[in-house]
Every structure is written in C-alpha cells, then in structure tokens.
Design goal:
Length: 125
C-alpha cells in the first residue's frame, strides 16, 4: 500500500510538472521563437532552483516530509525539467549550423543549472 501511495504522489507531481512545463513553453518558447530554446532553458534552470530549494529545506529536518519530497522533487521537478528536450534542441541547433548558440546553450544550461541548484540549497538552508 505504501508503494502505491508513493507512485500516486510521484505521478501527481509529474502531471503537474509536465503541465507547468508546457505552460512555460507556450508563454516563453512560442513568444520568442528564436534559435535559442528559451522555454526549455527556463524550465531547466527554474527546475534546478526548485530542486535545490526543496532538498535544502528537506535537509533541515522536519521542514519537509518524505511524502512532500516524492511529490515535489521526484514528481514535480522530474516532470517539469526535461533533459530529452534539452538534447533535442541542441541537436537541432547543430543541424541548422547554429554552433555558437549550441555551445552557449549547452554550457549555459549546465553552469547556470548547477549554480541555480546551489543557490536553492543555500537559500533553503
């Protein structure tokens, strides 16, 4: 029964995260349809910040239960961020010959993503 509850929490969080990712794509990605994939970049960086905040809060002890970690970290952040779209956007830029944008996106996603996760941890602790 505990496993079913955990699966339901992850599924609910994943649904909400995926829906939020699509909403960001509509608001940002389609509004600024440049070579650089701003929608995917935004959700991945915001997701890194959110996971840092959540895990930082969880590390303080009684601030976040395991149930909330399943819902928010595994479910929502897992559904909200997207490595597959990041990879697809990168390949598309390379195929189109946008090498500078690709390297900016690839390096920026990793560096800014790590910095956002670290910032979230620092803020929450």
């Amino acid at each position: 029964m505990v496993m079913i509850k955990s699966l339901m929490l992850v599924g609910l969080g994943g649904f909400l995260g995926s829906a939020a990712r699509y909403a960001v794509h509509l608001l940002i990605g389609e509004r600024w349809s440049l070579v650089f994939p701003w929608g995917t970049f935004t959700v991945n960086i915001v997701g890194c910040l959110l996971i840092g905040l959540a895990l930082g809060a969880a590390s303080r002890g009684d601030v976040m239960s395991n149930t909330m970690k399943l819902l928010l970290v595994t479910g929502f952040c897992g559904g909200f961020t997207t490595f597959s779209a990041y990879s697809m956007d990168g390949i598309h830029m390379l195929e189109q010959g946008h090498n500078l944008q690709f390297f900016s996106y690839a390096l920026g996603s990793v560096v800014v993503g790590l910095a956002a996760t670290f910032l979230g941890l620092v803020i929450a602790r």
